[in-house]
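Job type: complex structure
Entries:
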Amino acid sequence: MEIDPFGGAVTEKEEKLFKKFGISRFKPLVKKLKNPLPTMKRGFIFGHRNFDKIIKRMRKNKPFAVMSGIKPTNYLHLGSKMVIDELAYLQKHGGEVYYSIADVEAYLDNGLPFEKSKKIAEDNITDLLALGIDLKKAKIYRQSTEPLVQKFGYIFSDNVTKNMMNAIYGDKELKLYLSALLQVADILLPQIEKGKLPTVVPVGIDQDPHIRLTRDIARKHNFLLPSSIYHRHLSALTGDKKMSKRNPKGLIYLREDPEKAAKKIKSAVTGGKKDTKKQRKLGGDPTVCKIYELYSAGFIKNDKKLEEIHEKCKSGKLLCGEDKEHCAEIIKDFLRKHQEKRKKYRDKAREIIEEIS
Amino acid sequence: MEIDPFGGAVTEKEEKLFKKFGISRFKPLVKKLKNPLPTMKRGFIFGHRNFDKIIKRMRKNKPFAVMSGIKPTNYLHLGSKMVIDELAYLQKHGGEVYYSIADVEAYLDNGLPFEKSKKIAEDNITDLLALGIDLKKAKIYRQSTEPLVQKFGYIFSDNVTKNMMNAIYGDKELKLYLSALLQVADILLPQIEKGKLPTVVPVGIDQDPHIRLTRDIARKHNFLLPSSIYHRHLSALTGDKKMSKRNPKGLIYLREDPEKAAKKIKSAVTGGKKDTKKQRKLGGDPTVCKIYELYSAGFIKNDKKLEEIHEKCKSGKLLCGEDKEHCAEIIKDFLRKHQEKRKKYRDKAREIIEEIS
């Protein structure tokens, strides 16, 4: 059985991108993974570069690094959770997590002062810990206080021309190019610190330009080329392509009041018909339903159960109102438990952010 | 009496530059300085921006900073000594020296690996100490290991556009622009560390673009605008404009064998005539003589003595051979004494470079 929220997973347009930039389909790798995440089985993670290499390291119990990070411009939400789940999975299977709090980028791209981003970062770290990132195998750092990232950001400008940057990012200002170089240094930090350590970077496909730049620079500086896996972003509940703070009704923060979150769920876009009668007769369309997407992204882990909902929706047995109630309970339950964990990790997060300040 | 190796000191072309960029003549300030250096009295230091402000600090015994540095690409020579003498003078009169070993720039501009530049830097520091820089009032650091310089290099890209950089430096590659931003961070480091501390930067006029960029960025980031003083470079003994490693016959390293140095002195370009007879009759021209320039730059400190030589040369009493012998003795004596001091400071220099590595 193949459960996939977006039907064919890789669209024609994406297929072209894949060919152009040498990205491979993720699907054939799923069977090689121990207890793959719902996002892996269900097509949210849909592409990769050299992830087979990382799988080999996992199987042989050899060290590898998982690199990720975020600009600390806002609180984390359900979409962010998906990425952190990937990190936790890869960490559990042998990876050492490197997590960059990209506060210099937040300053350069968003004008966010360091004192503000520090507070947000503390909150972000609380979520990281509550979502299961194990500090014993993780290095969490701020770009603004990590000398090696800063140093290598400069060093990597060595092999980069303005033409290259224009080709990759368009004709942008210096500060954007510097942000990009800092990201390259972030991604190569595991190797800068520990020599040639295979590294995987979980990213959205929109981040692939950074991966391409990094691989180019890695080649020139005699590092291993980083592997990458590509995920789709969780859609906004309102139907927009991506959960974003610009559309607060479309996203649910991990620290959000569970009752408020439930209300958002109840206003979500679904694949329902105009009225009950029609829906009973014609059934709903789970492929466009944001509720179903949440289930599929991991809020229902059991494949059988997910398939049942899929069938009941399509056959008209399950109506949107009922389904939303169901989903709201799941999300409320998740948020309550997560927020309990957050309380537990709050002091630790403060300790970490002070340590790296 | 006015002793000035270049006649009018400020040329017409320079006058235009001064007006265009708001640089003032140094000369009127000389009388306000306690025991000014020969280079100050004799027109080697010929321009400034807001140096009057620093003089006020000196007079009131208030703190100020003196910022300088060098790309550690080569050993220091007599030309470098002139700048270090300025630092030592300003330090003696109340300034705290900040000295940047610009190894990231050396990497980006010259491709010099850090391990090589570290060795050269150690040698440069030995000279700094032997020339009288007092470690109790000096911070010597490497760009590659000074996190605040690196961090602020990125931060300062904030207010810088590619157009600005093109206007100042021409259409160059990213790495050159990054080098420039690192220099800005170097110059503002005293204020980054200690708040609004008046700072003076002794530079060659060719470095003024960096000063202009720094002042622009300082304004936008609410720092005090740095003051600057502008010196002429010591000419090469062969007559080229500037002592440079590209022309080894034209320069004398501070660690050079004194006898070899004497030979270079004896091959120096002078203002002598074709033969002894002509010179006895018509006299020499000290204004183009590299020997006289060395005297004037400080190897003869006594103004009366310098004037005597000037007169004897012009009248034909002093011939070039004799004068070169005289100069060679002075330089040999200086080098011998300096190299004795170098021996004394070698261990300290090694200690410093290891501390900042």
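Summary: The first helix of chain A runs from residue 12 to 21. The mean pLDDT of chain A is 94.
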